[in-house]
Amino acid sequence: MQPLNKRFPEGFLWGGATAANQLEGGYNEGGKGLSTADVITAGTHTTPRKITPVLEQGMNYPSHEAIDFYRHYKEDIRLFAEMGFKVFRMSMAWSRIFPNGDDAQPNEAGLKFYDDVFAELKKYNIEPLVTISHYEAPFHLAQKYNGWSDRRVADFYVNYCEVIFNRYKDVVKYWLTFNEINILTMPFGSFMAGAILPDGNTEFGHTAGAAEDEALRYQALHHQFLASARAVKLGHSIHPDFKIGCMIAYMCSYPLTCNPEDIILAQQKDNLTNFLCSDVQVRGAYPGFAKRYFADKGIEIAMGEQDEQILQEGRVDFYTCSYYSSTCVSADPEQEKIGGNLSMGLKNPYLKASAWEWQIDPKGLRWSLNNIYNRYQIPMMVVENGLGAVDTVEEDGTINDDYRIDYLRGHIAEMKEAVADGVELIGYTPWGCIDLVSAGTGEMKKRYGFIYVDKDNDGQGTLARSRKKSFGWYKQVIESNGEELE
């Protein structure tokens, strides 16, 4: 038996994570088409965002400029390199490559932009980790096909994959097919993840809530499963060294009490919210609990004759997830609710919460990594993790974000414990390594980054970049391969 290893492995992929629609900007430049993210207005913690199928003059659309990575990518990548990044998780804007999604030919100017980004990353020996679809699709696909509810959209996605796999096969090794694919199991994900148009109420995250709507979401999810599986098989045929993974928004939920009803509810939530999608993508088939859920709800998934074979042949190579917080579940409807990453849960009396009411739970990350790895036993990455907070720029220009350092220190320490537990963890990319637009609220003041960007909720600011205290701290973490956390 080998001795206990309490260190991160050599070659561990330290880095940071972003998404095109939250940092890139240049929404109508270089031939880019309108995306679903481009028609969502700004909001706040208490004011919901709106979906506007026709852009409205005078409204603030955060994705249109975001933090203008489109023009600042060289400066930003240089700062990532200064921190010592080994990997940079980014996404590609589908509508920058295929402006309408169903175009016959790709947009060369869009492809050239990513040529330049990858060349800059290679200059600093930073490995790109590319999310192919991250909460944006060409808006034309929503308008003409009602997004992923239409099976034909899977064909358009695979065509997009074929173009980028061939174009970047010599510079990109790691790919993720969909960001937080399991969000489509939740009403909130209909438009953001599924490009399914709202039923008349344009409040972001709104759905009708009827059984038919849930059935539509699961049908759209099935089409994404097929698209993912086809992309995995295609990618391996184009380059056998490609590593193609899934990405799950892992929602850690504890039973509030030892009441058996609470225990069963926690298990059911873990299954339906977390494991339904990863079972299909990792194991290549729908699990039994999903089949029972569909039967109980009267949901029938329209499948083609070859669909089960497609899913089996397109299993992913590795598993990635986001982890921010944990919540509790209970059969008691009177318990106090609290927020989380795109979801609500019950308050845990043993945990503190952030300003956005996300409960801070580093030990929950260790528990989650063990729970996932014991099920699948394939390589894993934590590709989103972080603390959204309001940062204050002092008179001398410093930003003392000790609260962010404390949050990350605790989570990295628990990742190390998970490695000692036997979890095959190969990388860590905390979310929003540079300040960017919040996906849920559209705010800038909810900051995650090691790098501060001078821009406010109203879209005003110089876009100047500056290092926070956490910048130097994370550089030290990377240099020591996670050994120096103080």
From TrEMBL:
Keyword terms of this UniProt record: Glycosidase, Hydrolase
Coiled-coil stretches: none
GO molecular function: 6-phospho-beta-glucosidase activity
Domain of life: Bacteria
EC number annotated for this UniProt entry: 3.2.1.86
Keyword Hydrolase: yes
SUPFAM superfamilies named in the record: (Trans)glycosidases
InterPro entries membership: GH, GH_1_N_CS, Glyco_hydro_1
Family (UniProt): Belongs to the glycosyl hydrolase 1 family.
PANTHER family with a match to the protein in the record: 6-PHOSPHO-BETA-GLUCOSIDASE (PTHR10353:SF296), GLYCOSYL HYDROLASE (PTHR10353)
Name of this chain's protein: Aryl-phospho-beta-D-glucosidase BglH
Organism: Paenibacillus auburnensis
Lineage: Bacteria, Bacillati, Bacillota, Bacilli, Bacillales
Gene: bglH_1
